[in-house]
Amino acid sequence: MASAPIGLRSRQATRTAPPGISSLRAATAVWTRHRDLLRNAATLLATTGVTSVLGVTFWAFAARKFSEQAVGYGSAAVSAMTLLGTVGVFGLGTVLIGELPRRNPRAGLVSAALLACGIGSLLLGLAFAVGAPLASNRFEDLVGQPAEAVTFAVGVALTAVTSVFDQATIGLLRGGVQLARNLVFAITKMAVLPATAILLHDQFGAGITVSWIAGIAVSMAGSAIWLRIRGCPVLPRPDWGVLRALGKSTLAHNWLNLAIAVPVTLIPVLVTVVVSPAANAAFYVAWMVASFLFAVPVHLSTVLFAIASADPRIISRKLRFALKVSLWVGIPGVLLLCLGGHFALSLFGSGYSREATFPLRILAFSYAPALPKIFYVAVCRAEGKVSRAAVVLTAFAVIEMAAVVVSGMLGGLRGLTVAILIVTLVEGLATTPAIVRAAWSYGRHRRVGAHRRTNVADLAYRPDRTLPLYAG
């Protein structure tokens, strides 16, 4: 009797394979096709997971050792440092994500970017410390004294430098480096907080701010020591010429970064000013817990941009997969937060579970509407449409800030969170068409250039071709 063709036998074997083996084969196939996206997103997600658990512990301890007013001021100071640090990055981190996969040498470019953002953000921090108290007495409480002003400015500079450093590691698909740095940061700030709770136990959150800054400083020092041990140069001679040549691209990316980051970092500050520091304490906790939901799509979007910078033709397939993963993970997470958020907030105290439960549920409902915007950013960066995305997101950032101020004044914390949800819904509807076109256009995207066709996945995962962080 003639034997069946080889292809038919293989298909029959696949059909008769036990369910467990079939599932394992399917999972292996998915990993093989998307390991560049999954592996580096996993390091970012691990960073978020570890730092989030320790971050919740940090804020839970702060909520029990400091007054609600002090927590409100401390979280506002952290948000202000993050905002100004984001401005002080000047788009350099995002530019490095796109440029480093296709440049060698690269050490001078990374060094120039770190120095430029460090100096620029330090000046921004000092300018804020001088000018902000003139706008509100509550800023006077935060940075009114010379020591507080200098501490705040240093915190802004360190925030910017670590942001660029972490994004440089993603540009090289060396996500483990930023994972280690963020782990040291989370552990250090937790270790320092009890001491500052005793030594700096005031009503304006100075102990919280100092703990945060100390964590950043120790984490960067540890990263520098690790790089030196591995034989990588620490701050080699800066290549200012290459950095200047990227000026136009840097400005466009910085504009888009600000349109994304300003609402996220400024809203807690606005809540403190428009509503009250105590209301911001509840809002910030809800905001922080809800941010766990967004970790998966945000990190997938970041790595998607890094991969597509090397080969824009693959973005459709990667984008469809990233959207599926985001929905698989996010929808159960929304249900979990809506049903169990009250218990999570009780870790911070009964006042937080009472005041922050409603804002947490409303912020959780914004998950699905926010997905189009998150991936719209990666698509526009990969296709070279950064300015277009910046215009769209700037318009929505202005609308969201105005909605927060007006709704906060009229409806307090509850009205403010509802306004955020409404703006997110409109923003999602506006960006969805671009995502649909990108995900189902099957590679008809604009090619940024032949020099970007290098397979970054090969560069990242073939041991003989993996480059050190500052190889140059």
What does this structure look like?
With 472 residues, the protein is an all-alpha fold. The protein has one domain (37-461). Helices cover 82% and strands 0% of the residues. The longest helix is centred in the last third of the chain and has 54 residues, at 386-439. The protein is globular, with a radius of gyration of 23 Å.
Please give the alpha-carbon distance between the first and last residues. Answer: 64 Å
| H/I helix tally | 17
Helix content: over 70%
The pLDDT mean sits at 76
In percent terms, what proportion of residues is strand?
under 5%
What does the main sheet amount to?
none
Secondary-structure element order, N to C: HHHHHHHHHHHHHHHHH
SS class: mainly alpha
Quaternary structure classification: single chain
Give the total of beta strands: 0
Give the CA-based shape: globular
Low-confidence stretches: 6-14, 442-472
The total tally of domains equals 1
The radius of gyration over CA amounts to 23 Å
Annotate the secondary structure layout:
Elements: H1 6-16, H2 19-65, H3 68-89, H4 92-99, H5 107-131, H6 137-143, H7 146-171, H8 175-199, H9 206-229, H10 240-245, H11 247-274, H12 277-310, H13 315-345, H14 350-365, H15 367-382, H16 386-439, H17 456-461
Short overview:
The protein has one domain. With 472 residues, the chain is mostly helical. The termini are far apart.
Main features:
globular, 472 residues, mainly alpha
